[in-house]
Amino acid sequence: MQIKEVINSLNLNLLTHTGDMQMEVTGGYASDLLSNVMGQAEPGMVWVTMQGHQNVAAVASLIGLAAVIVAGGAPVEEDTLKKADANNINIAATDLPAYVVAGQLYALGITNGK
Amino acid sequence: MTEAKSVKMSYDVAGGDFDRAGEASANIKRMLQKIGIPADIVRRVAIGTYEAEMNVLIHAGGGTVNAEIFTDHTVINISDHGPGIPDIKLAMQEGWSTAPDYIRQMGFGAGMGLPNMMKCSDKFDIQSKIGEGTSITMEFNHISEDL
Ligand SMILES: Nc1ncnc2c1ncn2[C@@H]1O[C@H](COP(=O)(O)OP(=O)(O)OP(=O)(O)O)[C@@H](O)[C@H]1O
Ligand SMILES: [Mg+2]
User: Mind listing the domains of chain B with CATH numbers?
Assistant: First the structure.
């Protein structure tokens, strides 16, 4: 499934403009600990988090994630979006809690990819 | 005698500068991609370098990232003149962290950076002296496991 279908299905609010919307989603990961994400997440995954500061964009770019989903209505800093757009990273936000987002991703058939 | 050709890159990392955090690793990543190193190797170098870069920025008040890219491997050295690590064995344990609260609020401080560096590199060396600083060297072979 392409990332744009995921964003549409979950009715997420896409905050960035330069990301690859055709990227094939390989799985999902949920965590608010950056080092944990770097050790566990794989390229093409969507990352569900409550973190909205700019290091999120850096981590997503280094791993090559399909998108970051900032859940729970957590604020996303302007600098985060700038960094994401500079690196062609998709960031989408939702008021849904992280738990619900993960459940909906699973319902779409996006598992933890392993 | 012919010397092995290499590309050298060097970056200063300013302590606490979260606006420019990750620039060294991002630039090294881009160079490796340009040279045509396999994607899974590039990712491992980027992750290891980012973890070390962030440690220097957070725990050591800044330092230097040096990369040397050879045809068959890449060597990354990250060094600082920070406080040093009193007990390296303890610091290498997953979950051990001295990160203050405001750093944890940004998602750092899981105590997984050093273990990640060791896992993602083919060779890992850490030297640290209290009051003098810390130096980490990682080596990455350019042989892809994806092939
Ligand atoms: N360059 C350094 N100078 C001084 N102390 C360091 C340095 N790098 C690591 N440390 C010490 O080692 C601990 C463990 O480092 P590690 O990178 O594994 O975890 P962390 O940085 O605390 O959290 P995380 O990397 O998961 O965000 C740090 O909390 C810090 O006390
Ligand atoms: Mg760390």
Answer: 7-141 (3.30.565.10)
Question: Could you tell me if the CB of B118 is within 6 A of ligand 1?
Answer: no
Tens-place pLDDT, residues A67-114? 999 999 999 999 999 999 999 999 999 999 999 999 999 999 999 876
Contact list in B for residue A59 (CB cut-off 8 A) is 50
**Amino acid sitting at position B96:** W
Q: Model's pTM, two decimal places?
A: 0.94
Distance, CA of A72 to CA of B61 (rounded, Å): 33
Q: How far is the CA of B115 from the centre of ligand 1 (A)?
A: 10
Partners of A61 in the β-ladder: none
Find tokens 């045809």 and name the residue.
Answer: B71
Asked casually if ipTM beats, i.e. exceeds, 0.85, the reply is yes
Spatial contact of A32 and A49, defined as CB atoms under 8 Å apart: yes
